[in-house]
Design goal:
With about 280 residues, the chain is α/β, with parallel strands linked by helices. The chain has seven helices and twelve strands. The longest helix is centred in the middle third of the chain and has 27 residues.
Length: about 280
Amino acid sequence: MKSKIRDLKVSVISDVHLATHACKAKPLLKYLKSINPEILVLNGDIIDSWRFSRNYFPKPHLKVVRQFIKMLEKGVKIFYITGNHDEFLRKFNGAEMGNLKIVNQLILDLNDQKTWIFHGDLFDHVIHQAKWLAKFGAAIYGLLTVANKSVNAMLRVFKLKDVIIYKSIKKKLIKDKTQLTHFEEVITKISGERNYKTVICGHTHIPRDKSTLTANGLVRYINCGDWVEHFTAAEYHHEKWHLFHYIDNQEDDENNDEPDIPNKKEVYKSLFQELAVANLL
């Protein structure tokens, strides 16, 4: 039984990391099919150029891209906000292609209140002062992901639930603090100075929803999390922002009308056959 499609004013997702083993494309695809937003904001690190390989872009990842295109065709406005892992797009800031626009930040005026949306890496000192260290961390993250797949394959043999190793490690190292981190404090302070009532970031992969009283009034900080560990999105509906946690029931409920995307061998086989036939004409 199909779940009801939810109408939203805005949906904000970040840190998808397509083209990496860490990406959880299947639950993301289900989430995208479950919503009907007026505006979809892709808040950085959607495509991972740091670890991109032409040898790894599986069908579920291609289907996510195809779903973005389908949403554009249906009239959904998509804003692609650039992040550090897809920084190669920053040179195209302001570029528009139909309903798609590439930007470095986005300001939305909703219910007479301004919301500031950007990826967040601008306030990450490691990215600017030791980028090599950030890339090294990303590489270690990638190795853990590959190891995680082997562990989960073994767990499935014994009919046990999948685990996310790096999520468990991070949970032990980073506790859920009620006080703002330095990263959050700086962003919240600047938001208050600019009279933004809500600020939405990604980058840290840690979903958060906190309201803080600044010298310029109350500011709500939302981190929309990621689609690697937490499966979260910031959604605006009923004139309010909500931090939505998607729960994947792991059932394969993809539409039967979804055309199969051929793999690399199938593409070359089809191309060879087509050219071979053409030579006979």
